[in-house]
Design goal:
- The complex is a heterodimer of chains A (about 500) and B (about 50).
- Chain A is mainly alpha-helical.
- Chain A contains 22 helices and no strands.
- Chain A is globular, with a radius of gyration of 23 Å.
- The N and C termini of chain A lie far apart (about 75 Å).
- By secondary structure, chain B is mostly helical.
- Chain B starts with a helix and ends with a helix.
- In chain B, about 25% of the residues are buried.
- Chain B contains 1 helix and no strands.
- Classes of the chains: A mainly alpha (about 500), B mainly alpha (about 50).
- At the A-B interface, helix 3, helix 10 and helix 15 of A face helix 1 of B.
Chain lengths: ~500, ~50
């Protein structure tokens, strides 16, 4: 069963896990307040911020679908990464939305919304963020486990009955939960730093080895043969313009409102540091798509369709399982474990932070909780999220396409939250009617599309519309709802009170 | 377009390697600084309580 995974590799992985646990637990003694727990006391500096953001935004799931993009679309599959680099640079240089957000001194985005739109919008935004975020994260553990088994040379289908995957990923989750629950953002930052170095070095070594052993020309030839010119130019792909436009909207929304990304801005020492983190990390997002994309292209160039089977998601790990020599396999698996652990810990903390700060906000209205009680409740929430992930994401088998699932759950909140944030920061007429309309439309539209896609009578129509058009539409509809709702309140309610001019 | 992707790929690897080394060194000092600041913050808040 084992292919190239040996005791040496297992030793490397074990050593890495031990190092992470020690580092994660060592800093828990510095946690004294809720602010320490959720945003590291806002003491995070530039380079730690870069390492943390990069490690958080690269998990095994990311590696899997970006490699699948490389396999199915060629080099053009890295387009979303280039678009995200542009978005990060533009937002970092101009401070668009993130400057007022950091200056406000809030711990989450919904907390900012309360100042402008009231507590109902804050609570509603918190619910949508947590719902979208947790459902999105629900698939991380299983996908991560499948990658690790495939790369180590195991067949995941053979493990269905034996539950080895579940047991392995449960142990991993317990380790992550242990240091996240106890140390919060501080443990996340310190382990992220360690994980960034291990993950980056392993990714670089594998990529250089592909260049040396396979070479650039066979990769280019494979893309030319399988995808033609569309493998190099996204605009020549089927629905190419829609693909680019949808990803442009999506990447700007991610940069502005993805809570795990924004938490790095909110934990930064100053607003300037936060903006610098964005600028300096921007090119990482191209690497995040292109490097695993090259691994996917290498699978296209070296493996036959029979070796890959029906699921193209497995192409890259299957390629790595036969490509990497002993020792390097252990480094790669340690690197990918690092990538997954940093993502899981940061995401558990980030959604836990929104639950505490925004969804539970009404319970703190009458009497503020003490810092000690606040930290204790935060720890309890993170532990509950860990349990949710365990049962929903691992022991409960998910059905359907992974990318559709990630896309839908992400768009549910990204479209409305980006509209709300822009309106909150830059449109003086924006109000709670528009905000609630935007949240509801932003959530209903993508879910509605998925339902249409599943119903036999409407599936053909949904297919004709396509995922990209529906995604673009959800941003347009959410934005329109904000404008219409805000203007309606302005003219119907405020004008009666004579408050429009004021 | 092939040249474009070749340049991007090479730049990606070189940039990522440089970034990893540089961030690895500077990030270590950032952690030290952050923990020192939190330690003094914790001390001052506990002395305020005592006062």
């Amino acid at each position: 069963m084992l292919s190239l995974f040996t005791f040496l590799d297992a030793g490397i992985v074990g050593f890495y896990l031990l190092l992470t646990i020690i580092a994660g637990l060592a800093v828990r003694k510095y946690v004294g307040k809720v602010e320490h727990y959720l945003v590291a006391g806002r003491e995070m500096n530039l380079y730690l911020g870069i390492a943390s953001l990069a490690a958080t935004e690269f998990g095994i799931v990311t590696c899997m679908y970006t490699a699948q993009n490389g396999y199915k679309m060629g080099f053009a599959g890295a387009t979303p990464g280039i678009l995200q680099t542009i978005a990060m640079l533009v937002v970092g240089i101009t401070g668009f939305c993130i400057k007022p957000l950091r200056d406000a001194g809030v711990m989450t985005i919904p907390e900012l919304f309360q100042k402008r739109f009231g507590s109902t919008v804050r609570w509603l935004a918190g619910v949508v963020i947590v719902l979208g975020g947790l459902l999105n994260m629900g698939v991380f553990l299983r996908t991560g486990g499948e990658f690790l088994l495939l790369t180590a040379g195991f067949n995941p289908e053979a493990f269905v009955q034996s539950y080895h995957l579940e047991i392995m990923m449960t142990i991993l989750l317990v380790i992550v939960a242990l240091y996240t629950v106890l140390g919060g953002m501080l443990s996340v930052l310190v382990t992220d730093f360690l994980q960034f170095i291990i993950m980056s070095l392993s990714m670089l070594v594998v990529t250089v080895l592909i260049f040396i052993k396979i070479g650039w020309t066979p990769l280019v030839e494979a893309v030319k043969t399988h995808h033609g010119p569309a493998g190099f130019n996204p605009f020549l792909m089927d629905r190419g313009w829609e693909f680019v436009l949808f990803n442009l909207c999506l990447q700007f929304a991610v940069v502005l409102t993805w809570q795990a990304v924004i938490q790095r801005i909110l934990s930064a020492k100053t607003t300037k540091t936060g903006r610098q983190i964005y600028m300096h990390t921007s090119f990482f997002f191209t690497a995040r798509f292109l490097i695993p994309g090259l691994w996917g292209i290498a699978a296209l160039a070296t493996l036959t369709p029979e070796q890959i089977g029906n699921n193209t998601l497995y192409a890259m790990p299957k390629f790595l399982s036969v490509f990497l020599p002993t020792g390097l396999m252990g480094i790669l698996i340690a690197g990918m474990l690092a990538a997954d652990m940093s993502t899981d810990s940061a995401y558990m903390l980030t959604w836990g932070g929104v639950i505490y700060n925004d969804i539970l906000a009404p319970f703190r209205k009458k009497k503020q909780w003490t810092e000690k009680k606040g930290v204790l409740i935060n720890r309890f929430i993170v532990a509950c999220i860990g349990l949710f992930l365990l049962f929903y994401g691992l022991w409960y088998p998910l059905k359907g396409n992974l990318w559709d699932y990630l896309g839908v759950t992400g768009t549910i909140y990204l479209s409305s939250m980006s509209v709300l944030l822009i309106a909150c920061c830059y449109w003086k007429d924006a109000n709670n009617w528009g905000a609630i309309g935007a949240i509801l439309c932003g959530a209903i539209f993508p879910i509605g599309f998925l339902v249409l896609q599943q119903l036999p009578t409407t599936s053909e129509w949904a297919q004709h519309i396509g995922p990209y058009k529906s995604g673009i539409a959800s941003y347009v509809v959410s934005g329109s709802a904000m404008v219409i709702g805000s203007l309606a309140k302005k003219y119907l309610v405020l004008s009666k009170k004579g408050g429009v001019s004021s | 377009m092939t040249i474009f992707w070749l340049i991007i790929a090479i730049f990606c690897v070189v940039w990522y390697f440089t970034m990893t080394i540089y961030v690895g060194i500077r990030g270590f000092f950032d952690i030290q600084e952050m923990l020192l600041a939190l330690k003094s913050d914790k001390k001052s808040s506990s002395s305020e309580k005592n006062f």
